[in-house]
Amino acid sequence: MDYIETLNEKQREAVLHGEGPILILAGAGSGKTRVLTHRIAHLIYQHRVAPDQILALTFTNKAAAEMRGRVVKVLEKLLPQIFRERDLWISTFHSACVRILRSDIHHLGYSNQFTIYDDSDQQSVIKACLKDLNVSDSVYSPKSIQSRINKVKNEGYDHLSYKPSFGGPYEDIFMRVFERYAEVLKQSSALDFADLILKTVHLFEQVPRVLQGYQERFTYVLVDEYQDTNRSQYLLMKLLAGERQNICVVGDEDQSIYKWRGADIRNILNFEKDYPSARIFKLEQNYRSTKNIIEAASSVISYNTERRDKTLWTSNNEGEKISLFECYDEHDEAHKLIHEVTNAINEGAALNDMAVFYRTNAQSRLVEDMLRAKGVNYQIYGGLKFYDRLEVKDTLAYLKLISNPSDDVSFRRIVNVPTRGIGAVSLEKFTLKAREYDCSLYTLLGKIFGPDPEVVCDLGRGAKNFKTFFHLMESFRAAKQSILPSDLINMVIEDTGYRKSLSDDHSPEAQSRLENLAELRQSVVEFELRRGAENPTQTLTLEGFLEEIALVSDLDKADPTAPAIKLMTIHMAKGLEFDDVFILGLEEELFPNVRPWEPEEPADVEEERRLFYVAITRARKKLRLFFAKNRTVFGNAHFRVSSRFIDEIPEQYLEKNKADYFSRRRNYLERPGLPPRKAWGRSQDEFADPVPDDDYAQVPFDEGSSTEFEGQEAFKRGSKVLHPAFGEGIVRQCLDKDKLMVEFRGQGVKKISLKFSHLKGIE
DNA sequence: TGTTCTATCTTTTTT
DNA sequence: AGATAGAACA
User: Fold this and answer.
1) Strand B within 7 A of A359 CB
2) CA A337, CA A342: separation in Å to the nearest integer?
3) How high is the pLDDT of residue A662?
């Protein structure tokens, strides 16, 4: 069996071990995915376990896809006749639970056609609840209530089982909101993310027959990234493992970075207590990185106290030292980054094997601008999402309402989009009526305007409009049965008048919105093609598409082989690896990210340190770290101190590059084709960079720049311009003497004020 | 009821 | 600095 030969001794032991609970402590880059996939393959090939008896759970679709691909690769040669890929349940926690709930949630009195509410849907519900209960949202901010509710649910409790540990008026009100929230969700046939796991747990607890079915079916369960499981996921696995306890978990407590999402590090630390017969395997040999990188990483993580004793080692070469760049400010940082990227490429490094990591999404912007200006291909993951755009969300809300008429969040969103004369006042009245009848909004419409009206009520002037809306929606619901989702989406855009309202509006934004809708339709078409090819028996449903949108992130769809440097937060980087890694913003407050007005919790700093550890260990060959001495936050300049994490790397692994006088000057001089930025204030930054004034006096500040263009005459509709931040664009409209609408490649249309941003004509 | 201006907040990280 | 949500206005 050559698939066994390729493993090292420790890995092989873990793969070959038979029944019972197994904990695999796998350091970064020690081949944990390899062990998992080989174990699955081994169970199927050697122990003749049927593929559909195995359940393997991950956190991201990307990890699931990779694991699936690798299992398939091993097995399709060995067992071509009996092995069917589609029998494998290798998926994320959330998709697996959705699959279970779609077939069985009716036992809990929920509709199997439930809708999944995302973050912003959840927030809308909470706001509505606060309003229902007459609670001021300034005292009880929807955001804090949201995170509290999620926290409770992630810990495995719902509004019935949760008891606040301390009483008090705040707690009472929180509980009332929580209860109302649960009520609204149920009435809307909607589940939030936490519910997907929690309701599955409830289903198993309350309907033993269903649990037993799954326990009998899944004779082996495996969990990847076990350190990131929260309590409700832990309960889920415990139920599924049942008495057989064929549970295999893989994880590394040093890479636990999702505490804020409810991950409970105790799950992995206490595994042997939960499963006393557990066998433990430690994988400590790293195959990924150079010695320098591994030793630096080990040193950093050793500053954490909450960890098992574990030492990562490698037989790889020593490799290059880690480069550290002190930068004058974030502009200089971006500049030095590009400089390093270009150097690396000239030395033969591959662009698609490079990644830039940062702590917060907001940091990406400057880097993007710089990469674009220099013509370096890049791909950015996370941050603002396509599906979050206004017009896309509106259209999706129609689709969601068609799929689930009880979905009140979607109802409210689109009942007056495009405007059809149902304003806030009418809607408010209508909402009260719905509460009176204790039903969802659309259900009430049905009761008033449906074939056999049960309810008569005076909706005033809006009555006619409500009626029109109802019949429109009914026509969609009827059409849904017989046409493809991609045709339905066209029908929605046309018949609601959404397209007309956008094309009547000749503004450039409307134009780009139309394009986004076309793109949305295209993504439905792609879904249909993909699903059709994968699984011809499965019907191409609207629900399937909506589900995919809810559960699949853009990282999952990204193409790792594209010739582009990858930009992402460190959280997104977990599980990935690159030859060259660049980490930005290694400054106190930013990374470790602590809010200066709150007391610093040691446990939080430890989590940040694990995050840094994850970031370092992504690098195969070369690591470059950056920090800035000044950084603009919310438009205000701040001094910065380099991160304590830098000091935790022994000097011998570092090669330090100081910021020189030119770092600052470069900000003016080396911005190709761009005018210099505003003059520096003489205030604080003089202290941060104690250079004599006249050293800077020669830097051409504003001279020259203002003569490049005079007023706005140079810009006409259709002329090409260059913006310091957004890059190349085309003027779509001149609003007045100062304001232009400019369309930028890949970023849609922005309103530009000439007073504040320096536009330059090109060509 | 719909539009435009202003004030406020943002930045942790995501299935 | 920029986006957004609410308030004042037409």
Assistant:
1) yes
2) 9
3) 64
